[in-house]
Each structure stands twice: as structure tokens, then as C-alpha cells.
Amino acid sequence: MQRYVYAFGKGTADGNSSMKEILGGKGANLAEMARIGLPVPPGFTISTEVCRDFYANNRNYPDGVWEQVDEALAALESQSGKSFGAGKSPLLLSVRSGAAISMPGMMDTVLNLGLNPEVAEGLIETTGNARFVWDLYRRLINMFGDVVMGVDHSHFEAALDRAKEEAGVDLDTELSAEQLKAVTARYLEIYSEHTGEEFPTDPRDQLKKAIDAVFQSWETERAVTYRKIHKITGLLGTAVNVQTMVYGNMGETSGTGVAFTRDPSTGENVFYGEFLMNAQGEDVVAGIRTPRPISELGGELEGCNRELLEVRDILEKHYKEVQDLEFTIENGTFYILQTRTGKRTAFAAVRIAVEMAEEGMIDKNEALMRVDPAQLDQLLHPMFDPKADRSPIAQGLAASPGAAVGRAVFTADDAEEWVAKGEKVLLVRAETSPEDIGGMHAANGILTSRGGMTSHAAVVARGMGKPCVAGCGMLQIDGAAKVVRVDGSDATFAEGDWVSIDGSSGEVMIGKVPTIAPQLGGAVETLLGWADEVRRMKVRTNADTPEDSVRARSFGAQGIGLCRTEHMFFGDDRIPAVREMILANDETGRRRALETLLPMQRSDFEGIFTAMGGLPVTIRLLDPPLHEFLPHDDEAQQEMADRMGLTLAQVKDKVESLSEFNPMLGHRGCRLGITYPEIYDMQVRAIGEAAVNATKAGVKVLPEIMIPLIGTDVELGILRERAVAVMEAVFAESQTVDYMVGTMIEIPRAALTADAVAKYADFFSFGTNDLTQMAFGYSRDDSGSFLPFYVEQKILVEDPFVSLDIVGVGQLVRMGVELGRKTRPNLKVGICGEHGGDPASIQFCHEVGLDYVSCSPFRVPIARLAAAQATLRDDL
Ligand code: PEP
Ligand code: MG
């Protein structure tokens, strides 16, 4: 018989932390904590394999599951000497979900299972605490009703609010036993009104239904959406953890809390968390009572605080990783209910990895592997300009760092709708719930008036890397009227108004506060420095201006891998000359226009060479179809007619004659260089003269002339010869400078015949944007109409323009490298398509032996780390 149930108890467990796949994260860690002797309330885990088989069998449970649950329950009863849902000292249970990857707020929890009127009376007798028992009972009905039977939580909430109002109190802890008993009775009525049945009194029936509800919740819309957004695939399902209840709501020496072993927002090595006295688990994150900082726990219960600090230390040393833990104190006895790897911001992830390495807990390589390169993106996004006037109207908790600016919307659905229409929005809610996940993902940032640092909004925003200000209690959010008022001031804002939030300081501003580019520093620099020591591939950048070049260097770029010269043709001072060149009827006319462009190009290149100070600079000769530069409206056409002494009709004719059905496959790239050689001649001369001038000015230069869109070796042979001739002519006028001539490999035929192409190339640079376009036959500019559908339908695993299609396009790259190096063993090979900044693609580039990757300036740090990780994986 297959094993489906794994027990954990005092000092022993059937499972351990390596069994996440079948026990889920929560179950595996409960087992591990029990093993290492931490005070975990005993229980058992029903494996994820049950979930898998359940869905595989049309929602039928595999044989033997319920028998194994009964056996495990019997064992729990005999160990504790208590009976489940019976007797004066009954065993009560909690049921919680837990998949291998934690999905906060996505799955459901039911506490206090096993209560019925008879058991309640018995428990009141033994504990002498009626208030406590009715509090348990009303929570059971609420959670069971909500999670198992789908009775909306708000019905219960409203009844509780009414009871508090009638009693004239603010907090549920202030309700008396009698009042809570009445609330319980009312809850039972609400339950029957909405379900049409009585609340189950049979404990086993309760337990079975709760377990079933957890398995059913695996396929709810919000769980499916969460997995989609976070690209979680390949899990068997959720496990279900059934555990002995311990009670944080027994009175003033009881309580419950959540904590991180280090600050998950900044990464600082300080214990970080919140607790509530006389409360049950859900209260801390529900945002109804405001939790207290963990540093105050010692003042309440010194011994328990000491135990908690010890557990913090033991867990972090044991897992060698930041832990996010939950604890409960029952009448002065400390229990640990959960531990898992703490979700953290990108900045915290870096700082924690670096500091753990410096503390000697892990080594540098481990630290490098700990940080997800894609997460670094968050650190590279804008922050508010420190010089800008902020005038905050309110202050909340700095729940997830970064600057966000957007127009206020008040529901998650609105956020999604507005963003679909091209708006930037900020989601403003009293608190968020798992149903809001889509809107949170769409919004630039999240602002809530309730809830603490571990509230749903805060946890989810940190995971997504979205700026979030939480618990901003000064805001009075009127969700119906869609306006926000601020306590103690006359500031207000309404739907559609621009609002800025600073997730690093907790400030809220009306209007658009200007943002600036971020700066790397501290731990990030340290980590990237370690990455540089490890990685084999170099990292260059795609940059067309001195400013971009300078920024990329500050991010660590080791050269320019692609300077697209066409971007230099668009300035107001240049476009007329460019147009004149294109519209000219003969070579003489073209040469005249090119004369005007030469000095401009030369100074462009001088600027870039200077900015790069001796690092290699790959300059690509003109690539796009000529008609992209042409004047298309009457006014611009007339201007050209005047400039060139032509009639408007003549200009129109010429423009017409240059239009193409398939410009991407038309007269572009090296084909222009072959048919209008004087264009490339001018560009090569500009490169040569700029190199000479820079050298004379004492700047070291390493120009690499790159010819785009080569399909045959013959094309490259012709163009290389011309380029070399122009460079030699320039050098003959003054002095010689070292340079290279190479090509982009972006047409499949060039990859297939790379051995021949390499005869004329000192280097290859894979233009994987075009290579993907041409290998798939998907237009780069038109694929938006079907690619998202393809990805959604899993026809493609990923958008191949974002992450290299290793199976197909990757073969062309691999073949290109191998064939090219067969002809020229020292051929330098890189990539300059968008994929050069994508971690998975960078891994592949490393594997096929590329010398460098080149990506946009902001992705340079990502590429440095991803290249280091790829090198480290060689030894795994
Ligand atoms: C490419 O095709 O991958 C490339 C880098 O060139 P462009 O994007 O300019 O076509
Ligand atoms: Mg290209």
C-alpha cells in the first residue's frame, strides 16, 4: 500500500526537510523542526501525491488515504492522551495547506476543528475559561464556513462588528464570554442561512471536509492565477498538514506572532516581526488589530522571548538561510508552528547573501547562487529624486521598497482594466486579499490603510518586487465613493488622481514625484564584484550614446557589444542630410549628403570611444531599410523638395519607389552596403578618423566594425575588403590603429554556413532578435497578435523574443559557434540580441562557449550575476 500520511511529533518525524516535493514546504519543515527537537505541536502531513492522484482521478481520493488518516489520528490521540473532539480535555486540530513552493494567502487554513456544543461545555469545565472556548468556536464556524462551504467571510465579520458595537467595544478581545457565546450562536445561524444545512457536529466529518477543502483549493482561480504569475509549474499539488491545536487566545499569557530571522525589507541582521497577545494565528496578518513589534515581547513574557530568540538562532544556523517563522504561546509555553525560507526584497536578498558569506555561514559561491539575477532588476528601477519636493500627505509602513507613481484605482479589477488601456495605476485598498492578485500584479504600486509588515499586501508586494506602502492608518478610504481623505488634514484624492508612494520610506504623495535612475552600492557592489571574480564570459552593453555608455560602465559593462548607428541618423540636424542621401538619384548626390554626415558620425564615435576609455566598442554599420528614414507627410516631403531643388511629386515618387512589402526581409543591412557602398564607406571612415583622433588625444581605442545581416560569405568578403581599404586609406593619412572587422549572425543561412563566413570575420555577434524572427518566421513587430496566446496555450513555453528558444534557435547559435571556430579557432563570439540580458539565455551562451554577452545598460548587473552562476554550475 502506498504511503500517503507522514507523522511528526516530539523529537521524531517520518519526513524531513528534503521531502518538500511530497510533504510540501510546510510539512517538510515541520518534520525537520520536530527532528531537531524544537517544540512543534505534533501532527501529520497528507502528501502532495494525494492531491495529484485526486485530480488525476476525476476528484476521487486514492484508496487507503482515509484509513491512513485514521491511523495517524489514533496515534496522535494515544500520544497526547486526549480524544479528538471528545471528552473534557479534547484534542482539537488545525488543517493547513502547503505546497512545495510557498504561495502566501493562496491556500486555506481551518483552526479549532473538533468543537461541538458538547465538547465546548467540557472544555469550559476543564479550562474554566468560557470566553476562550466561545472564541475558538466562533472562529471555527467562520473559517470552516468560509473555506469549506464558501460562505463569505464578510457575513461573519459584519455580525462580529455588530456585537462589538452593541457591547460598546473596539476589539474582539474586549467581548465577554457571554457576548462571544451569542456571537457563536449568531454565526451558527449565518452558517445555516447560507449553506442550507446545520454546522457539522461530528468531529471526523469536520476534519474530512476541511482536508477535502484544502485539496479542492489547489485548483481555485486565485491559486491558478498565482501560479501563473509566478511561473510555478511542475508541482504535484498541495499537501495537507493536520496538527494539534495550541492556543494563543487563552488569555494574557498567551499570544501569537510571525517573525523573520532578518529584516526582509532591508536585509539587516535584526530580528524582525510582530505579535499579538491573546490572539489566534490569523489575527496577526488579518490587519484588524495592529500587531506590536517583536522587540516588545520580552516585556510581556521574558522566558518565551528568550526561547524565541534561541529558536531564531537555531533555525538560521540549521537552514543557513533566512527563516520566516510563526509561533504561538499558550499559557506561557512556547511553540513553533512553521518555518520557511523568508521571502525578501531584491535588496535584502543581496545584503543577506553577502552578510551570511561574510559571517562565514555560507561561502561566496553559495552567496552568488542565492540571488536570483532577474531580481536585481528591482534594484535598477527608478527611485524618487532626493532633490524633488515631496510634501507627503500621509505616512504608512515601508512595506516593499521602490518608487511608484500611478493613478489611483480602488479595486483590483479596475487596476487590470485601466492598465489594459495603457494607464499606469496605483492600487489603493483598505487591505488586499488573495483575490486581488491580478490587480496587484498590474499596478505600479500598492497602498493600503490597514495591515502590518506581514499583511497580505506587504508579503505579496515584496514577492513581486512592487513598491508598497501598507498600514497607512491616516487614510480614510471610501471604496464606494472612490475617494480618500487624510485624518487631520484636508488633503484628499480620488479615482484617477496621480499619486506617488515611496515603499522605502512609507510616504504617500499626491501628484507625480519625479524619479531618478538608481545607483548600485554596498552589498550589491560586493556581490557583483564576487561575480566578476568567478564568471568566464565578459559582459558588454548595447549603447548608442556617450551617456548610455557611461551609465553602462557604472553598472560594470566591459565594452560595447552593439552600437546601432542608425539611431544617430535621426536628430533634427541630421535627418535632412540622411533623407537627401536616400533621395539622391545618383552616387554624386549621395556622396554630397554623406559629406555632411561624416563629421557628425565622427564626433559621435569620438564621444563613445572616450566614454569607454579603451574598452572594445562594436559599431554596427547601417542596418534598417532606408524607407524608415523617409519623409512621409507632405510638409516634410516639401522641405526635402525645397532642399534638393525637386518637385513635391518627384519626392513622392521616390518615396513610393522605396516602399517595400516586407521591409524586414528587403533592402536593408549589408544589402544596402553592397548596393550603395558609399554609405558604409562614410561610416567606416568616420570610425577610422574617430579612432585616430581619440588615439592622438591619448584615449586607447578598440574599434570593432560590425557588418549586419550577412546571409552569404560572399557578401561579407566584399564588404570586409572595402572596409579594410577605407581604414588603410585613413591610416595612410596619419597613423595606424588596431581594429577588427566582424559580422552579426542573424540570418539562419549565415549560421548554417558559418565556417565559410568566418573566413572574413574576426568576430561573430549573434543577433538573436533577427535570428529568432527568421528561424520562427514570426515578424518581430507583428507577433503581439498571437504570441501571448501561444504562450498561454503552452504552444510555446516562453516568448522566444524574451528568452532564447534553446531547442530551435539555440541550435543555430551552437552550430554557428562550432563552424565558425572550425575555420578560425580564435574567433571571438558574442551575442547582442535582447537575450543577452536574460538569465536563462545567458546560461546557454555560457554553455556554448560564447566570449561575451551584450545587453541594455540596466541589465548589465543581471548579466554579470547570471554569467557567474553559469560558471559555478559547471562544477555542479
Ligand atoms: C538582432 O537582430 O538581434 C540585433 C541585435 O539587431 P537589431 O535588433 O537592431 O535588428
Ligand atoms: Mg538585427
Average of pLDDT: 92
Shape estimate = elongated
What is the helical fraction, as a range of percent?
Answer: 40-55%
Which structural class do you get from the secondary structure elements?
Answer: alpha/beta
Rg from Cα = 33 Å
Assembly form of the protein: single chain
Kindly, what is the distance between the CA atoms of the first and last residues, rounded to a whole number of angstroms?
36 Å
Hetero ligands: phosphoenolpyruvate, magnesium ion
Main β-sheet, spatial strand arrangement: 13-23-22-15-16-17-18-14
User: How many strands in all?
Assistant: 32
Question: What does this entry look like structurally?
Answer:
- By secondary structure, this protein is α/β, with parallel strands linked by helices.
- The chain is built from 33 helices and 32 strands.
- Strand 25 (538-542), helix 19 (546-554) and strand 26 form a beta-alpha-beta unit.
- The longest helix is centred in the C-terminal third of the chain and has 26 residues, at 587-612.
- The two termini are 36 Å apart.
- The mean pLDDT is 92.
- Bound molecules: phosphoenolpyruvate and magnesium ion.
Fold topology:
Blueprint: E1 5-9, E2 12-13, H1 20-35, E3 43-46, H2 48-56, H3 65-80, E4 93-99, E5 109-113, H4 117-127, H5 130-148, H6 153-167, H7 177-195, H8 203-217, H9 221-229, E6 238-244, E7 255-260, E8 272-277, H10 282-286, E9 292-293, H11 297-300, H12 302-319, E10 323-330, E11 333-341, H13 346-358, H14 364-370, E12 383-384, E13 394-395, E14 397-400, E15 403-409, H15 412-420, E16 425-429, H16 437-442, E17 445-448, H17 456-464, E18 468-470, E19 475-478, E20 483-486, E21 492-494, E22 498-502, E23 507-510, E24 515-516, H18 522-534, E25 538-542, H19 546-554, E26 560-564, H20 575-583, H21 587-612, E27 616-620, H22 634-644, H23 648-658, H24 670-675, H25 677-696, E28 702-707, H26 713-733, E29 740-745, H27 748-752, H28 754-757, E30 763-766, H29 768-776, H30 787-792, H31 809-823, E31 828-831, H32 839-847, E32 852-855, H33 860-873
Helix pairs in contact: 4-5, 5-7, 6-7, 13-14, 13-18, 14-18, 18-33, 19-21, 20-21, 21-25, 22-23, 25-26, 32-33
